[in-house]
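Pasting two entries for a bug report.
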Amino acid sequence: SPVLAGGRGPGGVAAQVLHGGGAAANSANRWFDKTLQLVVGQDGTCGALYDPAVIDGTVVSEMLDHAL
């Protein structure tokens, strides 16, 4: 993925996980209609996006705790 203006700081990581960094980066790589997305970047950036209306946050946090 291209280097974002925010870099590896909190702003750059948040942009990469939430929306892929925009049209010039990885936004085409996101599926915005899915209940759960696990995002793992080439540079080690990782995160999880989920729809709280469909899946409970407790379930997601337990799953991520188990994975980590």
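Entry 2 (this is the one that rendered wrong in the viewer):
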Amino acid sequence: MEASAAGAVTAPVAKAEDEDEEEEAARLMKAEDEEEAAGLAGRFLQLEREQNAALRALPPFGAPVSHVYRPLDYAWEPHSHFVRRYCRTPKRVLFLGINPGPFGMAQTGVPFGEAWHVREWLRVAGAVRKPPSEHPKRPVLGLSCPRAEVS
């Protein structure tokens, strides 16, 4: 560490080698992201984006529905992490519909995934934003949600 004229402590200037290594790592990560985008997970996520856009285009629900949670909008980051991690090869599984539940997918963006299992067992991470309209009794706490689904 070095002291500046004002007395502040500053870190030494990074070596050119370190910068080259960082640039190479960034280039490799970008190449992996592009490769992955063309892979099964990338295609699956693209289909989900298209279906999600089609759902958003539907007319709004009327009474008695007061709140609609769209976890693929506000919890896309952990959802896409889950898909990229676990949707690498073809599977003989088809989800026709998923009941998100107030303490499962509605919190995490992961199908059938309550927060503890998503975070600790599946090792999925990512930021969960607040939905535009939350029911006061069903706040979205994301991966820190302490409640579990009862089903």
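Dev reply: Rendering is fixed now. As a check, the viewer should reflect this: The radius of gyration is 21 Å.
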